[in-house]
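Entry 12.
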Amino acid sequence: MRAFYFDNIPGDQRLPHDSGNPVSDDILKSIGLLHWHIPTNQQNQIDTFAEERNCKNIDTITITKQGLGDLYEAKLKIFYEEHMHEDEEIRYILEGSGFFDVREHPTDSWIRCELDAGDLLLVPAGIYHRFTLDEKNMIKALRLFKYEPEWAPVLNRGDLTDVNPYRVDYLKSIAVSN
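Predicted 3D structure (C-alpha cells):
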C-alpha cells in the first residue's frame, strides 16, 4: 500500500490525485489506520488475522462495470460519499486496485491509500473515509466483519455526525478532543 496526501484538484475520482507528499506509517498509525501486505498465495494468514480481530464473517465483493451494469456509476458515487462506520472496515484485496481516502484529524486533509492485490487495510470505526476504484475499474476484495456482513455508512453531516458515540470513541482513541 502506498499513502499520500490527496491533491484536491477537481476531476475524475479514479485518477491518482497524488499531491507528491507521501504519508508515513507513523501518521497512518496516529489516525488508527493499519495495513499489511500479505501475498495472495498466503491467504491462510487472513484466517489467522480474522480470528485475532474476532471477525465472524468473511465475504467477497467484486466491483466492475460489467458486474454492476447500469448501477456502476451510481454505486461508485455512493462509495465516494464521505462517511464513517460503527465497526471496523477491513478489506483484503484479491485482485484489481482502488483507493481508500481517509480524513486526517485534526487537519481534515484527505490521505489517499492506494491498494493493490495482497494489501490488507483496517479502517477504524468512527473515521471519515470514502472509497473509489482507479482507472482499471475493477477490484475484488474480501470483507471481514465482526458481526453479520453489512455495509452501513453513516454520512458525514458535520456536528450531527461528530456526536455519534463511535466517532467520539474514535477521537478519544487518537487522543483528540472535540
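Annotation: The radius of gyration is 16 Å. The CA atoms of residues 38 and 118 lie 5 Å apart.
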